Amino acid sequence: MGLSMRLLNKVTLITGGARGMGATAAQLFAKEGAKVVIGDVLEEEGIEIAKRIKSIGGQCIFTYLDVTNPDDWEHAVRLTVSTFGSVDVLVNNAGILIREDLDNVTLEGWDKVLDVNAKGVLWGCKSVVPEMRKIGGGSIVNISSISGIVGLGYPAYNASKGAVRSMTKNLACLHAGDNIRVNSIHPGIIRTDMMKNDPHAQEDWQNLIPLGRLGESIEVAYGALYMASDESSFVTGSELVIDGGWTSQ
Ligand code: NAD
């Protein structure tokens, strides 16, 4: 444990941390000295990641958290504070993708996607801000998507990720006075379970991405690490695109 750790003692709540990018971020953050709480609906996987982090000397607990449920949020924040003393960082990473285009979109699909991806982020922010105020500030990192910037995707997914992008800027302005920074990250196509069953072949994506390959979870986690840490102390309301050049075309 060197003093140069980038997140030393930062208490961090990460949603959707049981697998994919959230799990990678949880492990990276713990290695950088953060005290991590993983909140997810996948209990077995989440407990496993927490165990793995503890086995290498990191600090981590898992809690069941459905980000659409305000009671779960209240419990998760209370548990974080009672276990580690505060909430310094929130990474709103939990998200779902339902592949319904305009012809096939259902009210149920729309509601589900907006519930998890947009309402979940709003409620997460609402739940941690009072705790961050108590300690004089904090950092919130919202995982949006390039689908929050350009049209690639599906209508409900794009709407939800666009909501995350603009909500981030609203909260950044509203809570700058509380010294709470709020930023969004916009990953391109990243190799996780979410993309595993995508109807497009991996080669299709590779041909569309200037860097010629899909991204890896760790490449997004490093962006989240920067936004979470004090290294980004003058950065708020900002959007970090991690997409191998996709949106530059
Ligand atoms: P993933 O499906 O591998 O992981 C998502 C995690 O969120 C899972 O552990 C899942 O259980 C959890 N989750 C889902 N609904 C939840 C809920 N209601 N409450 C709590 N947890 C819930 O996906 P991923 O690729 O790691 O995605 C992470 C984030 O990145 C998502 O917000 C996603 O939209 C976004 N994203 C992914 C890509 C990509 O190409 N994979 C690109 C851009 C943005």
Question: Can you characterise this structure?
Answer:
Helix 2 links the parallel strand 2 and strand 3. With 249 residues, the chain is of the alpha/beta class. Helix 4 packs parallel to helix 5 (155-175). The chain has a seven-stranded parallel beta sheet with strand order 3-2-1-4-5-6-7, sandwiched between helices. The protein is built from eight helices and seven strands. It has one domain (11-243): NAD(P)-binding Rossmann-like Domain (Rossmann fold, 3-Layer(aba) Sandwich), CATH 3.40.50. The structure holds nicotinamide-adenine-dinucleotide. Nicotinamide-adenine-dinucleotide (NAD) is lined by residues 15-16, 18-22, 40-42, 65-68, 93-97, 116, 143, 145, 187, 189-190, 192-195.
